[in-house]
Write a structure and sequence with these properties.
Blueprint (H helix, E strand, L loop, with lengths): L1 E2 L2 E2 L25 H9 L11 H8 L9 H11 L5 H18 L3 H10 L8 H10 L6 H5 L4 H12 L5 H8 L10 H12 L8 H8 L3 H18 L6 H17 L1
Antiparallel strand pairs: 1-2
Helix pairs in contact: 3-5, 4-5, 4-10, 5-9, 5-10, 8-9, 9-10, 10-11, 10-12, 11-12, 12-13
Length: 257
């Protein structure tokens, strides 16, 4: 029996005023299981795990993604995407292969670049920056201020370092968002395929699809102009690479007129 906080046996029951709060440092990082799986696969999860954990995982070879067949690559890519992006990526692969067949590019490279072009798209801005730090990659001011464009750079890094893709595939992934001057055929194909794959739905997409199989340079130019026009309407910064790509295309097309 207790009265006024006193046990009948004579012991005191602590009152709330007697309790002291002690704050303990918790080094835990807030991250979903899906994002941790992605960062482990991309070999950039060291700062997200207890010391030594990432090294033990590497030693087990649990995330070896080199030398995959096209079918194996598709399954791994799907596991790393958000479900809402899977149809787009598979559509981009199919469109890239069709365009490669039409214009004489390597169909295997086109398919692999199509699958990998958005491989890091699921990572948010902070995780994109974490990947860049892990890879020792320096960023320009535009990339720092526009982290949504970083997936092209980080995707290219992952395609090379994690999946062991050849330079043609890596470069196509790298330029698929902003474009660049002096784009080769595969780079043009991936940029255009990303824009007009069968799941895209916006005014003018049907005309762009038709144009892609008639004049790949004009389709690329149209895609760049549409993107730049949209960014201007939204008062958003336009990348230097996109501006240089459009200028290069204008000069190239004027010479052939």
């Amino acid at each position: 029996m207790k009265e006024n906080g006193v046990d009948v046996s004579g012991g005191m029951i602590p009152q709330i005023d007697d309790v002291r709060q002690l704050l303990a440092e918790n080094p835990a990082v807030e991250i979903s299981a899906e994002d941790l799986h992605r960062m482990l696969c991309f070999d950039c999860a060291d700062e997200l795990l207890p010391p030594g954990a990432a090294d033990r995982i590497r030693a087990n070879g649990a995330y070896n993604c080199r030398g995959l067949s096209m079918e194996q690559l598709e399954q791994v890519v799907i596991s790393l995407l958000k479900p809402s992006r899977v149809r787009h990526v598979l559509g981009c692969r199919d469109a890239a292969i069709a365009l490669a067949k039409k214009w004489g590019a390597d169909e295997t490279d086109a398919g692999r670049a199509g699958l990998l072009h958005d491989i890091t798209k699921a990572l948010d801005g902070p995780l994109q920056l974490t990947l860049c730090r892990a890879y020792g990659t320096m960023l320009d001011d535009f990339s720092k201020e526009n982290p949504k464009t970083l997936h092209a750079l980080t995707g290219a890094l992952v395609a090379q370092r994690i999946f062991g893709e050849n330079q043609a595939v890596v470069e196509a992934v790298r330029s698929h968002t902003t474009g660049k001057a002096n784009m080769n055929l595969l780079q043009k194909i991936i940029y255009v395929a990303d824009y007009m794959e069968p799941n895209r739905d916006f005014p003018g997409v049907e005309e762009l699809r038709e144009l892609a199989f008639r004049d790949i340079d004009l389709a690329l130019k149209t895609g760049l102009e549409m993107t730049i026009s949209m960014l201007r309407l939204q008062n958003r910064e336009i990348s230097k690479e996109s501006q240089e790509a459009l200028q290069w295309l204008d000069e190239r097309m004027n010479k052939t007129c």
